[in-house]
Design a protein that fits this description.
Domain Peptidase M16 N-terminal: 24-154
Protein name: Peptidase M16
InterPro entries: Metalloenz_LuxS/M16, MPP/UQCRC_Complex, Pept_M16_N, Pept_M16_Zn_BS, Peptidase_M16_C
Mean pLDDT: 97
Family: Belongs to the peptidase M16 family.
Domain Peptidase M16 C-terminal: 169-342
CATH topology of the largest domain: Cytochrome Bc1 Complex, Chain A, domain 1
Radius of gyration: 23 Å
CATH class of the largest domain: Alpha Beta
Number of domains: 2
Helix content: 40-55%
Distance between the termini: 46 Å
Order of helices and strands: EEEHHEEHHHHHEHEEHHEEHHHHHEH
């Protein structure tokens, strides 16, 4: 799929993705404003600000004004916050493309951030935090970066804590908004059956008054580990939720391609090694899957599972056995080609809609400032060899990179510590 990337006169980056015959258009706005751009005192502000941008603007003074207008147009719309970015989007019938651009720009540029709305929204956000606390599957995901990165932005919760959310003041929102929500930090993506010249004119019109400023980088994440680590959270549950993995690579490191294939082989599909061993053969888990994340300056690969409490140690042993196997035994060409085929097929499936394409191009631009086409990514996957897999496995699967997070009715770490050895 062809795309056009340009930097407008006001400093805004615009990516247009023409998709002939599409009945819908997606308007996606991404900004370099996530939890890794925060200080400890304002942890959770990026996420809180995302909520506030739907609470009213100068021309749409309430959340109901915004939602009613988008709902009347049949739009699919939402927002999200991660450690690296915040995003706002709407997918809409193509004849309403200009309207979607106008509404999303209004939400982004002109939010009122009223003190009474901030105070009211603390409640839902604290309940969101409570919800995650009560869901062990979600909580494992929050504890994982805490174990890897500790007390630095990469280790903090995206939502912040209940304490930090309660302390945020309107002045914090305004200061952060003026620093982060500037043209230089922002990417607008329009994907659909569009007239690129007309769309560019429309974006220029509605984004004319976007703030300018100095683009600043987030604090560099410090990677430091010399031995296996465990983070155990005691909770009386009927099963144990765990995440076991290692520190890995950044989003620009070419070794992420063999690392991704390793994760596919271990837990990326229903015929993967660990799915077959833990679910099908042992029968002690409902979910077993791989998880990996390659960020700007850090990354990891891991296996996540919910397992029988009594079989926790047995499952940890099996996962470690498969880590070791990839170090000591070469893959067969057949297993490697099956993994490549699966990943290429899933990549193709993941870029079917305008929303998919906007996300595909926008995320790359906001993370790296450069874009790799699907065909280029597929070529990188195809190029990986059996030798590459073994080399990367030997680099990744080391004792001093091992990390284990678990939630369940366990209080003693010692039995698990003795297991965390790869040799």
């Amino acid at each position: 799929m062809n795309f056009r990337k340009q930097t407008l006169a006001n400093g805004l980056r615009l990516i247009t993705v023409p998709i002939a015959g599409s009945l819908t258009t997606t308007v996606l706005v991404l900004v370099e404003a996530g939890s890794e751009y925060e200080t400890k005192e304002i942890n959770g502000l990026s996420h809180f600000l995302e909520h506030m941008c739907f609470k009213g603007t100068k021309t749409r003074p309430s959340s109901q004004n915004i939602s009613k207008e988008l709902d009347t147009l049949g739009a699919h719309y939402n927002a999200f916050t991660s450690d690296e970015m915040t995003g706002y989007y709407a997918t809409i019938a193509k004849e309403n493309t200009d309207k979607a651009i106008e509404i999303i720009s209004d939400i982004y540029l002109n939010s009122l951030l009223k003190e009474e709305d901030i105070d009211k929204e603390r409640g839902p956000i604290i309940e969101e935090i409570n919800m995650r606390e009560d869901d062990p599957g979600s909580k494992v995901w929050e504890l994982w970066p805490e174990l890897l990165y500790g007390d630095q932005p990469a280790g903090w919760k995206i939502t912040g804590s209940k304490e930090s959310v309660k302390m945020l003041k309107r002045e914090d929102f305004l200061r952060y908004f003026n620093k982060r929500y500037i043209a230089e930090n922002t990417v607008v993506v329009i994907a659909g059956d569009i007239d690129e010249v007309k769309v560019t004119e429309t974006v220029n019109k509605f984004w004319e008054k976007v703030q300018r400023g100095m683009r600043t980088q987030k604090p560099k994440t410090i990677e430091s580990q010399s031995e296996p680590r465990i983070l155990l959270k005691y909770k009386q549950l009927d099963q144990t939720h765990l995440k076991l993995g290692v520190r890995a690579y950044t989003i620009t490191d070419p070794r992420r391609f063999p690392a991704g294939i390793i994760m596919n082989i271990l837990g990326g599909k229903m015929s993967s090694r660990l799915w077959l061993r833990i679910r099908e053969e042992m029968g002690v888990a409902y979910y077993v899957h791989s998880d990996y994340d390659f960020d700007i300056d850090h990354g990891y690969i891991a296996i996540a599972a919910g397992v029988s409490n009594e079989k926790l140690e047995a499952v940890v042993k099996v996962i470690l056995e498969e880590f070791k196997r990839l170090k000591t035994e070469k893959l067969t060409d057949k297993e490697l080609e099956e993994a490549k085929s699966n990943m290429i097929g899933r990549l193709a499936i993941s870029i079917e809609t305008p929303e998919d394409w906007a996300d595909f191009y926008g995320n790359q631009e906001i993370m790296t400032g450069s874009i790799m086409s699907p065909e280029e990514r597929m070529a990188k996957i195809r190029k990986v060899t059996v030798e590459d897999i073994q080399t990367v496995a030997n680099d990744l699967f080391k004792d001093e990179k091992l990390n284990l997070v678990l939630i369940g009715p366990h209080k003693d770490q010692e039995p698990l510590k003795t297991l965390l050895k790869l040799g």
